């Protein structure tokens, strides 16, 4: 085998972490980027995504819109699924969100964890905190592998 082939062999191509930066860059023109998500940390089974809350993320009460929080949970959990199922197509099949406290402008962070994996589904949980560590929302989601 040539050196070039060794660098691009199956074990090299299947490493999801080697392509994480490229994935984050590719996501910029999607809803991820439109929302303003930033990857803070990722490892197998866990990801942390941050969001700098802007005025357009607020509702008329001047607090973060619930849809923004739900989207942040879905994006962070979805990232964990992508890392755990590289090259596979997956979709969100269920998302539960518990809104616990409101927030305004400033940074918020979502930590997502894989809590169960079967042959066809992955079950996730996530929590969103503000820059003081106050829990804003908690959620769970189920993702299905699509064939």
From TrEMBL:
The keyword Repeat does not apply. Belongs to the thioesterase PaaI family. One of its GO terms (molecular function) is fatty acyl-CoA hydrolase activity. InterPro entries: ACOT13, HotDog_dom_sf, PAAI_dom, Thioestr_dom. It comes from Paenibacillus montanisoli. Keywords: Hydrolase. The keyword Hydrolase applies. PANTHER family: ACYL-COENZYME A THIOESTERASE 13, THIOESTERASE SUPERFAMILY MEMBER-RELATED. This is Thioesterase. Residues 63-136 form the Thioesterase domain.
